[in-house]
Design a protein that fits this description.
With 412 residues, the chain is an alpha+beta fold. It has two domains: 283 residues, BirA Bifunctional Protein, domain 2 (2-Layer Sandwich); 90 residues, Anticodon-binding domain (Rossmann fold), CATH 3.40.50.800. Helices cover 37% and strands 20% of the residues. α1 packs antiparallel against α5 and α5 packs across α9. The longest helix has 20 residues. It is elongated and about 85 Å long. It starts with 14 loop residues before the first helix and ends in a 13-residue tail after the last helix.
Length: 412
C-alpha cells in the first residue's frame, strides 16, 4: 500500500483553504486590473539557460534543474520576472509598449521549508515594462499599497531605496547588508569584517540621502494615493537579487513578524540579456503565503468551509422533480446551489450533510409548500425556518453580497 503524503515543502489545499485563497486572489486581480494591468501566464518549465545567472549565485543554488526525456536542460520557474523578460524578448513586437502585466502562478525553490517559506508557493507579480519614468515606479508603489488596503490591512510600512546608492559596494557586501533585518547591525558588521570588508561601510551607507529620481518617486507616490506615513527611505535596504538597477522596496505588515510580504524594484538591464538591448522595467511580487498568514492573524479571511449557499433537499423520492426544477431556478439566478446528494435519505440526514459541509441554508419543499406555492428556508446556523415564495427566495439571496466571503447572503 502506498503511503499517502506530500513532499516536504509542498502542500494540499482542502476546500476551506482553497476558498480563502481564491478570495484573496480575486481581490488582488480586481485591484491590478483597475490599475490597467492585464494577466499573463507562462509555463512551469523554462530552458535552464533562461533561468541561470539571472538571480545571483545563492539563488541559482535553489533552482530545480533537471534533464527532460529529450535530454534538454530545463528548470522550474523560480520567479515570474525572468519569464516575463523572456516573453518580452519573444513577443515584444505584438505587445503594447509600455506593457503592464500581472501574473499569479506558482514558483518553485529548493530551500529549507520554515515559517512562511515553502518549496512550492504562489507569487503575485505586477510589472510595467518599457517605461523609464519615475512615474512608473510611483505607480508600482501605489499599486502595492492599494492592494494591501483592499485586502483589509490598515497599517504597513513601505521601505524604499535606490540600488544606485550601493553601486560602489562589492556584491558580497551588499548581500551581507541585506541581512540587516535578520541579524542586526552588529551581526552585519561582524560578517562584513569576516568577509574582509570595512565594517564602517554600514554606517556610511546609513548616512546617505535619496537620489534625485528616488526623491521624485517619494514625492509623487503620496499624490497618487500612497499614505505618506507608510513610506520610509531606508538606505540600507539592498534586496539580494542582482538584477535591480534603480528603485527597490519592501513592504512589511505592522505586527506581522515573519518578514516582508512584498518586494520589488526597477530592473532596466535584465530583459536586455534576451533582446540584446536594454529595456526599462519596474515591478514587484507579493509573497502570497505570507499575505495569507498575515490575513489569518488579523482575521481578514472568510470563515466559510464551502462556496455553496443553499442545499435543495428532496422531501421524498416522488417529489424529486420539484427539487430538480427548483435547483435549476436558483442556479439560473446566479445563486450557488447544491442538489442534495442523498435524495433517498430522510430529511434530517440531508440537513446533517449540509451542516457538516458548512452550507448555511437548506431549502425544503414538501407537499404543504407545493400546495401553498412556497418553500421553507432553514438557517442551519441559527436553527430557524421561514416560509416564502421562490421569487422571494431568489430576491433575498441575489440582492445582497457579503463583502467578506464574496457570496450572496439573504437579508435579515
Amino acid at each position: 500500500m502506498i503511503k499517502a503524503q506530500t513532499l516536504k515543502g509542498f502542500r494540499d489545499f482542502l476546500p476551506a483553504d482553497a476558498i480563502r485563497r481564491q478570495y484573496v486572489i480575486a481581490k488582488i486581480c480586481d485591484v491590478f486590473e483597475r490599475f490597467g494591468f492585464d494577466p499573463l501566464e507562462t509555463p512551469a518549465l523554462e530552458y535552464a539557460e533562461t533561468l541561470l545567472e539571472k538571480y545571483g549565485d545563492e539563488a541559482d543554488k535553489l533552482l530545480y534543474l533537471f534533464s527532460d526525456r529529450g535530454g534538454r536542460k530545463v528548470g522550474m520557474r523560480y520567479d515570474q520576472t525572468v519569464p516575463l523578460a523572456r516573453v518580452i524578448a519573444q513577443y515584444g513586437n505584438v505587445l503594447p509598449n509600455p506593457f503592464r502585466r500581472y501574473q499569479i502562478q506558482p514558483v518553485w525553490r529548493a530551500e529549507n521549508p520554515q515559517k512562511g517559506r515553502f518549496r512550492e508557493f504562489l507569487q503575485c507579480d505586477a510589472d510595467i515594462v518599457g517605461s523609464s519614468s519615475y512615474l512608473a515606479d510611483s505607480e508600482i508603489l501605489v499599486l502595492a499599497a492599494e492592494t494591501l488596503t483592499a485586502l483589509g490591512f490598515k497599517k504597513f510600512t513601505i521601505s524604499v531605496n535606490d540600488r544606485t546608492l550601493l553601486k560602489d559596494l562589492p556584491v558580497q557586501a551588499i548581500r551581507t547588508i541585506d541581512k540587516l533585518g535578520k541579524i542586526g547591525e552588529e551581526g552585519v558588521k561582524t560578517e562584513l569584517s569576516a568577509r574582509g570588508f570595512d565594517a564602517g561601510m554600514l554606517d556610511a551607507l546609513k548616512a546617505r540621502h535619496p537620489t534625485e529620481t528616488l526623491t521624485r518617486v517619494l514625492e509623487t507616490a503620496p499624490e497618487l494615493g500612497v499614505p505618506r506615513e507608510t513610506l520610509r527611505f531606508t538606505p540600507t535596504l539592498a534586496r539580494g537579487l542582482d538584477y535591480y538597477t534603480g528603485m527597490i522596496f519592501e513592504v512589511e505588515i505592522t505586527d506581522y513578524t515573519a518578514g516582508s510580504v512584498c518586494g520589488g524594484g526597477r530592473y532596466d538591464r535584465l530583459i536586455g540579456q534576451f533582446t540584446g538591448k536594454d529595456i526599462p522595467a519596474t515591478g514587484f511580487a507579493f509573497g502570497f503565503d505570507r499575505l495569507m498568514e498575515a490575513m489569518e492573524e488579523k482575521k481578514l479571511l472568510p470563515t466559510g468551509k464551502t462556496a455553496t449557499e443553499l442545499l435543495v433537499t428532496v422531501f421524498e423520492p416522488k417529489m424529486l422533480d420539484e427539487s430538480l426544477y427548483l435547483t435549476s431556478q436558483l442556479r439560473n439566478a446566479g445563486i450557488n446551489t447544491e442538489l442534495s446528494p442523498l435524495p433517498d435519505a430522510k430529511l434530517d440526514k440531508q440537513l446533517q450533510y449540509a451542516d457538516a459541509k458548512g452550507i448555511p441554508y437548506a431549502v425544503i419543499r414538501g407537499p404543504n409548500e407545493v400546495s401553498a406555492g412556497t418553500i421553507a428556508l432553514k438557517n442551519l446556523r441559527m436553527q430557524v425556518q421561514e416560509e416564502m415564495t421562490v421569487e422571494a427566495l431568489i430576491k433575498k439571496f441575489a440582492r445582497n453580497t457579503d463583502t467578506v466571503t464574496g457570496t450572496h447572503l439573504p437579508s435579515e
